[in-house]
Structures are given as C-alpha cells and as structure tokens.
Amino acid sequence: MAKKRPQTKAKRPQLSDGEIPVVGAREPCPCGSGRRYKACHGRAAAHAVTELVQRPFEGLPGECDWVALRELVPAATVELPLKGGLPEGVPSVTLATVLPMAWPALRRDDGSVLLGLQNDTASGDISRDLADTLQKALTAKPGTPVQGRRAPADGPRLQDLLDPEGTFEPVVHPGFEFWVPDAENATPEVTASLERANAAAIPTVKLTGVDAAYWCETPEKNHLRWVMPHPEEQLLDALARLHAAGGSNLGEGTRLVGSFRAHGLTVPVWDLPSGVGAEDVEKPAAEFAERLATALATDAPLTPDERRARGGLTNRQVTLS
Q1: CB 230: neighbour CB atoms within 10 A?
Q2: pLDDT tens digits, 284-296
Q3: pLDDT(15) > 70
Q4: H helical segments located in the chain
Q5: From the centroid of its chain, how far is CA 230?
Q6: Residues 136, 141, 144, 148: what is their CA dihedral angle, to the nearest 10 degrees?
Q7: Model pLDDT, residue 108
Q8: What is the pLDDT of residue 169?
C-alpha cells in the first residue's frame, strides 16, 4: 500500500477588517476563522446597521423642520440641494413627507426625483437609509418608483450628499396633489392612494415668525407643535420657569399640555381653542420665543413651584422615536 502523504493545510490569506466582504449570515466568514459570518465579522456589521442614531438629522440645515416633516406634518415638500450640484438629467430633487403607494422614492418621467421621508427604514440610521434610497433614485430609470433596502453600514448619509450651505424651506400643502403633475393621466392605483391620503390629512400650517412651529386643526381643538433645538433638560427647566410664572401659554384659552420626544429633539405642544387659527398664534408665538430665550439664559436653581411644574411637564412627555 502506498504511504499516505502527510496532509498540510494551506494558510489562508489574512484579511484586514476593511477587506472582509459581506456574505450570507450562515456562510463561513471570509476572514478564515472557521466561524459563521454572523458570529464573526457579521456581528459588528449587524450592530452598525441596527444601532439607533438618536439625532439622524443633526448637522443638516433645518434639523428641526426635518423632524417636523418626519413625524408631524402630513403633506409638505422641500427642494434639496446636492453637494456639487444636480447630476445630468436630474432637474430637481424634492423631499416629500409621503409618496403615493408609500414608495420610498420616485424618479419621474422628466428625470426629477421625489424622496419620501415618512417611510419605515431598515436600519437604526434614518439618514443613511434615506441617502441610500436617494442615490438609487438618482440613477433609476425615469418613470419608475424606487424601493428601499438596508443601507450598507459604511454607506453615505444625507449629511454627505446634501449641500451644507443650502437652505431647507418646507412648503406645506393642503393635500397631496403634488404627487401628480398630470392628474388626468394618473393610474387608478395612484388616484385611489391620493384620495385616501387627502381624506386622512390634518390641516396644517407652518408659522412664519418662528422656526419649526406648526399649527394644526383637529375636530375638537387646534394645536401648535413646535420642534425646538435646545438640549432637553435645559429646555424643560426653561419651560417649567415660564409655566410656574404663568408665562407658558400663547394667549387666552391656550395651554402648554406637554411635549413629544422625536429624533433627539423636544417638541412642546399647546392646545388652542378651535377658533384660534395659525395667523392668530403668530404674534403670541413670537412673544413666547422672547420669554423662552430669557428663561433659557437663567441658570438659577428651580424653585419648589418650578420643580413641580417641571415634574408635570416631564410626566406629559410622549416619545415618538
């Protein structure tokens, strides 16, 4: 019998972390460890795409309005300027709160791009997911919707794609007619989606005198929801000072009722009488902004009344995201 040749294992090439390709979760890890990818280098990759980014819009122009359009405003659009300008064949890029059929994005027949903001995202970083969808839309065939996906963990974020010197000026619409430039030729599916969306839209108006404050009308009462950029603890202290002093309202019959937490920012909410429209609250909101600035600049310890007011405000916080 022939002698068995001693078997030697060839050395696998050593790969750095940056060279490890993505494979199926149950496949052997390409690094050569002998473990499955999900138990080896895939663990870090999975953590990177699921870890929640608390303030996904931080650093973008109009961060507070990004939060408002994501969570509070039914129908609005914003023109988005890109770094380096628009690609050839793309006349415009427009952010929209919602798109027909809940599409993540749409490349229109004329080459323009609509990017939906209020869609579910696959990872913990909304900014990265939106940037990935935007990149796909910029190269999609005109006249087609774009589907979302889980963005690569090292993919760009909106902060990498949008012009940091650009403006962010939302236009709030009474309905979703901006979906269909040519309503007569819309498909039955889009027409039905438009009718459903319009029926569910709450009348909303953006105030002009202060930043990121939105009036809305509901059957029982109206509301003002105001996204603020200040650190939460500092803002709650300031609101408590004003509340204890009787200065937290926006006029007769109005009341600061609590706040939302959304994407790392705080959104105070006021109840307004049904007869109070957006134009009626413009001046009171501007006056409140001045009182708030004074309260924010105060660093004295809270009084007992202010601490009680703060506790009440804290108990009436609702986390949206």
Answers
A1: 16
A2: 999 999 999 999 9
A3: no
A4: 41-50, 63-71, 126-139, 158-161, 188-200, 232-244, 278-296, 304-315
A5: 17
A6: -10
A7: 95
A8: 97
CA distances from 61 to 66, 162, 163 (A): 9, 9, 9
**Other beta carbons within 10 Å of 39:** 12
Distance between CA 153 and CA 305 in Å, rounded? 48
Q: What is the DSSP letter of 161?
A: H
DSSP code per residue over 21-41: ----TTSBPTTSSSSBGGGTH
Tokens of 44: 């870090």
The identity of residue 3, as a single letter, is K
Q: Are strands 113-116 and 93-96 parallel, antiparallel or unpaired?
A: parallel
pLDDT band at 4 (very low <50, low <70, confident <90, very high): very low
Alpha-carbon span 184 to 209, nearest angstrom: 38
pTM of the model: 0.83
Residues 6+ apart with CB under 8 A from 294: none
Q: Is the pLDDT of residue 187 over 90?
A: no
Assign 192 to helix, strand or coil.
helix
Cβ density class 68-99: b for 16+ within 10 Å, e for less: bbbbbbbbbbbebbbeeebeeebeebbbbbbb
Length of the chain: 321
How far is Cα 155 from Cα 34, in angstroms, rounded to an integer? 28
Quickly tell me which residue has 């049904």 as its tokens: 274
